[in-house]
Amino acid sequence: MPSTQDRGGEDARVARTRTDVSRAALEVLRTEGFDDVTHARVAESAGYSKTTLYAHWPTRLDLVGLALDALGELPHHPASGDLRADLIGELTVFRRSVTELRLDRLVFGLAQSATTAAAARLRDRVNAEGQRPLRELLGQRFSGARLEAALSMLTGVVTCPSLMFGALPADAVVEAAVDIVLAGGR
Amino acid sequence: MPSTQDRGGEDARVARTRTDVSRAALEVLRTEGFDDVTHARVAESAGYSKTTLYAHWPTRLDLVGLALDALGELPHHPASGDLRADLIGELTVFRRSVTELRLDRLVFGLAQSATTAAAARLRDRVNAEGQRPLRELLGQRFSGARLEAALSMLTGVVTCPSLMFGALPADAVVEAAVDIVLAGGR
To answer: Which of B:83-142 have CB within 8 Å of A?
Structure first.
């Protein structure tokens, strides 16, 4: 039986492995995409054996979960109290995250692979966290089906050009969307 | 040198092969997704050798192009002249297409793989054809950045729940979105 000292050393090693693998998984996710977050690819990138990865994180979703841990909280716009400015600010931060974090690939990969309860939980965690500030802002003006519609519409202003054309919306389009939604919500 | 008769027989065989392979590629695309439209998988499904497929259609994008040929024109709502009813009708048909044709997988697969000019042309063909009626309807009320915003927003009402949660919007959400956009466009 290992001494406390030995166990402490082992725990530290496992924690270091987790940190290394989390960072490698996030890097693969960001630069290569969801489909490439495999045990072989992450092991290669992190400098560990596939056997080590399988022992601690047996499924691909475990690796994606580690990547999300490394990602931490998604960036959000600090609220100023001016609804129009806050909506534009939040969408602008979201637009940047789509590019920098490849959020579109991540969300789509999760949605397509969410055929198990574990995958659905992971998907809902990312999506709920991602949409929370936008939902709260829109909740000042909308409720029920109109809130769901406004939330999907403003998310779509950023994600549709990205998903359909690999492009991001211009500032003028983001502002026009917020103005249409706010005018339509009166 | 083959006689005219022989060439006619050869042309007919090629045409039959093309039809068979197009249908198989579309079936794989619809039931299994973009990543599965490979020479191996389509050849197996169509009952031809991989060698035959590579000889006629050397790239995966050629196979996706064949699938789109088999798809034909995307279904659209026949316009009635009532803008609100026509927008709701078009989004409802689009919502059904997302389920029946797996349009979301197709569009995302094309967007992610559109790193070549050929892929970009294929992507733009599908997206332009898909959004054309909605763009024309919204063009009655919007132009410029406001038109792009309204187009992305109404596309997003259908695609965001699908891409983020694997779910489709309720009728009430589609109607609320159209009402917000039309009220915001006054």
So the answer is: 105, 107-108, 111-112, 114, 123-124, 127
Closest to B91 in 3D by CA, of B130, B127, B128:
B130
ipTM above 0.85, yes or no: no
Q: How many other C-beta atoms are found inside a 10 Å radius of the C-beta of residue A92?
A: 16
Task: Give tens-digit pLDDT for A141-170.
Answer: 999 999 999 999 999 999 888 877 778 999
Delineate the domains of chain B, giving CATH numbers in brackets. 4-70 (1.10.10.60), 74-184 (1.10.357.10)
Which of 4-33 (A) contact B at CB < 8 A? 33
Direct distance between the N- and C-terminal alpha carbons of chain A, in angstroms, rounded to an integer: 70
Q: What is the pLDDT of residues A117-131, one digit of tens each?
A: 777 888 877 787 788
pLDDT at A123: 80
Which conformational region is residue A102 in: left (phi greater than 0), alpha (psi within -120 to 50 degrees), or beta?
left
DSSP letter string, B55-93: HH--SHHHHHHHHHHHH-SPP-PPP-S-HHHHHHHHHHH
